[in-house]
Each structure stands twice: as structure tokens, then as C-alpha cells.
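Researcher: Please predict.
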Amino acid sequence: MIWPGLLVACAACYGLKLAGVFLPQAWLQDPRIQRTVPLMPVALLSALIAILTFSTGHRLVLDVRAVAIAVAGVAVLLRAPFLVVVASGAATAALLRLVL
């Protein structure tokens, strides 16, 4: 039952890529497009992190994951190296799950 949906999604992705090849060059040189396109991966990744952090199934959940993301966010604001950011978030989640 999943194969038809998967095939449709594959065709849609391929069609979207193919449509990008045929866009007029003037559209791609538009300053609004030039400013917006580099920001899209950041927005999509942020949305994915938010969904995975604050939801379980169809419910909104605030648990140790939210605190771990907050600690990692503080580490990012303090310009800590990536490994320190990940380790601080993981350690916070592990310690809180151990305590709670």
C-alpha cells in the first residue's frame, strides 16, 4: 500500500527538479530569490528540529528534549564548537532522564 505513495512522491520530486532546469534565467537573477534561497535550508531544518523536539505522535509535549535544545542553544550563542553543542544537549537530556 505504501508503494503508490512512494512512486508519486518520487515523480513529484523529479518533476520539481526538472521544472527548476526550465525556469527562465531572469527569474533566478531576481534579488528577492537571491536573498531567500540560501535561507530555506535553515528554515526547513529548524522546523524539523522543532517538530521532532516538541511532538510525540499528534500531541505537543514539553519534556527533557526541550531543556536539552535550550542548553544546546545557549552553547551555540556562546559560540561553542559543534561537538560541545551536541554533547551538552545530549548530556543534559541523559541527566534529566536519569533524575526524572
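Model: The longest strand covers residues 55-56.
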